[in-house]
Design a protein that fits this description.
heterodimer, A: alpha/beta, Rossmann fold, 2 domains, 6-stranded mixed β-sheet, 4-stranded antiparallel β-sheet, 14 strands, about 35% helix, elongated, B: mainly alpha, 3-stranded mixed β-sheet, 11 helices
């Protein structure tokens, strides 16, 4: 659905996007995960034709971006990073305006508005000015607007920036529903959990380069670092035993227990480790198993935690 | 024919009628000009010109009638220069991105905004004419109803062409500027010489040479000449000066307005094709 090869974008001497290639398949939700300033928005702005393609080849919905930008525009829907709603227009007028911009016929336009208002549950607000809407409602309206033209791909730039946790979860539900109905989704985010829970596949992007691409499951498993937390009757003895165990890659003493990183699938290794400790006569009082989070994945691939960005919350690594 | 510009037009008119305060003040302001400045000035000017002997065959009109054409022109100038400001706000608020990422050709943005600005000027011009007639402005004297219709149509054609030129200019400035304050500064800077180096409030005959040269290339002068031709006639005296115009003069004035609009459109089109907004 989207095919990008060797995309480069420079602002003067600064290379914002450095030779990026990736593909988005029909029907999937694909995320660009990276800190602010990584080049995510630049990529999206090139793909939606707001920035001109400087170098590289891009095809979207089967159309070449440099040769048929008009066709690309007709095939995509966009939800911008900031709110881009005219405060003094009503919900209905926003959608009507958008439909007219894209040359939708009157009957089609009106029918589509009704459908979308019910999808994003804004029927009641049809004649409200957008300045009277809450942040979540505005976002929903923008998603509805992005879907007005039945796009083949919906682009979303930081779709839940600045929304409260409940609203974000609702937003993910809407996006999943839209995706189930057949729209391919490309989104950028700097929220780990958003990339993790919403996407089929993720590209981690930093300093204008894609560092790794894969399903969340693939990325996490590639780390091979499940962590096991154990409290025993004698932590010193347990530490000594575990530190010589070949299945343990690293080990750290915590206040009341031991944190062990294991090489391989922790769900299978944990019982085995427990058996070893029990056999040595140690009494186990507490255990916990943790699979790597997206944070861990991110730290692993970029060598650092998400740096503090200009806006919104940034989730720091929660490594124990 | 692609009528995408009607989408831009529709939205701008929607906003025009939505902001009641702005709408009403933009209509009341020119009326106030006439009511206060016009009446005050005409009571003094008309006394001076009373002693001037009448020119045979020429119609003598009062100052209020003379300056009413200037007020129509001035209002059109202001409205048009500010007509593109919505583009600057759209740009700053990110709304322009929705439009630029859509299949709508960029030239249609310019045309749509220009047409809505022109519509606003039409509404204002008509209101000023009606209000002026109530105040005692002697427009369309001795004309049949058909004659009046033709004269009003002629005025609107001039007002329309003039407003297009300045709306294109306004769009050009708006798309090139970063802040509304900067835009306001430039517009204030422009309006002063355009307004005062014209025949809006007084005849240009007695101007020093340099000021007269400016007034000759000033589109506002040509708009006012056109309005007076249709509203008052081709042979009249006001403030003790005899004005005559041939249809050829009027055509020349109209051609100046067309040329001005053409140049301004090219400028706007060039700026829009360059504009990168993300």
């Amino acid at each position: 659905m989207i095919d990008v090869r060797n995309l480069v974008y420079r602002y003067g001497a600064f290379t914002a996007v450095d030779t990026i290639s990736f593909q988005v398949f029909k029907g999937e939700i694909f995320s660009f995960l990276g800190p602010n300033g990584a080049g995510k928005s630049t990529v999206i702005n090139v793909l939606i034709t707001l920035l001109t393609l400087q170098e590289g080849e891009v095809s979207i919905a089967g159309y070449d971006l440099s040769r048929e930008p008009e066709k690309v525009r007709e095939s995509i829907g966009i939800v911008f990073q900031e709110v881009t709603l005219d405060r003094d227009m009503t919900v209905w007028e926003i959608l009507e305006f958008h439909g007219r911009l894209y040359n939708l016929g009157k009957t089609e336009r009106r029918r589509r508005i009704d459908e979308l208002l019910s999808l994003v549950e804004l029927e009641e607000k049809r004649d409200s000015l957008t300045k009277e809407l809450s942040g979540g409602m505005k976002r929903r309206l923008e998603i509805a607007r992005g879907l007005m033209t039945r796009p083949r791909v919906l682009f979303l730039d930081e779709p839940t920036l600045g929304l409260d946790p409940q609203t974000r979860i609702r937003m993910w539900e809407y996006l999943n529903q839209v995706n189930r109905e057949g729209t391919t989704i490309f989104l950028t985010t700097h929220y780990m959990d958003e990339a993790d829970q919403l996407s089929d596949r993720i590209s981690i992007i930093d300093h204008g380069k894609i560092i790794v691409t894969g399903t969340t499951w693939q990325l996490k498993n590639a780390l091979g670092e499940d962590s096991i937390y154990i409290e025993t009757s004698d932590d010193d003895a347990a530490q000594e035993m575990l530190s010589t165990d070949s299945r343990v890659t690293s080990l750290r003493r915590k206040k009341k227990g031991i944190l062990v990183m294991v090489d391989g699938d922790g769900t299978r290794l944990l019982p085995a480790l427990m058996d070893t400790l029990l056999a040595a006569g140690l009494h186990i009082t507490a255990v916990n198993l943790k699979k790597p989070s997206m944070d861990d994945v991110f730290v692993h691939y970029t060598g650092r935690e998400l740096r503090e960005g200009g806006g919104g919350t940034v989730y720091r690594g929660r490594r124990p | 024919m692609n009528t995408g510009f009607m989408t831009i037009y529709w939205r701008d008119m929607l906003r025009f009628f939505r902001f009641r305060t702005l709408l009403i003040s933009s209509l009341v302001q020119p009326a106030l000009w006439m009511a206060f400045f016009g009446i005050a000035m005409s009571s003094s000017f008309d006394r001076f010109s009373m002693g001037v002997p009448a020119v045979p065959g020429a119609e003598a009109v009062g100052y209020l009638t003379f300056m009413a054409a200037g007020v129509i022109a001035m209002t059109t100038l202001f409205t048009s220069l500010f007509g593109g400001i919505v583009l600057l706000f759209d740009k700053n608020w990110g709304l322009m991105r929705e439009i630029l990422a859509s299949p709508l050709p960029r030239s249609h943005i310019i045309i749509g905004i220009a047409l809505s600005g022109m519509t606003k000027s039409f509404i204002q011009a008509i209101i000023i004419m009606v209000f002026g007639l109530v105040l005692g402005v002697e427009f369309f004297r001795g004309l049949s109803p058909t004659g009046i219709l033709v004269a009003v149509a002629g005025i609107l054609v001039f007002v329309g062409m003039f407003s297009l030129g300045f709306l294109f200019l306004s769009a050009t400035i708006s798309i090139s500027m970063e802040s509304p304050e900067g835009l306001q500064g430039i517009i204030t800077l422009l309006t002063m010489p355009i307004f005062f180096a014209s025949n809006a409030l007084y005849p240009t005959d007695a101007f020093p040479a340099i000021l007269r040269d400016i007034s000759v290339v000033n589109p506002l002068t040509h708009l006012i000449t056109g309005i007076r031709y249709f509203a008052i006639g081709d042979n009249f005296t006001a403030i003790g000066i005899h004005f005559t115009h041939t249809p050829g003069d009027i055509l020349a004035s109209f051609l100046v307005l067309i040329a001005f609009a053409g140049v301004m459109f090219s400028l706007a089109w060039w700026r829009f094709s360059q504009a990168v907004i993300t």
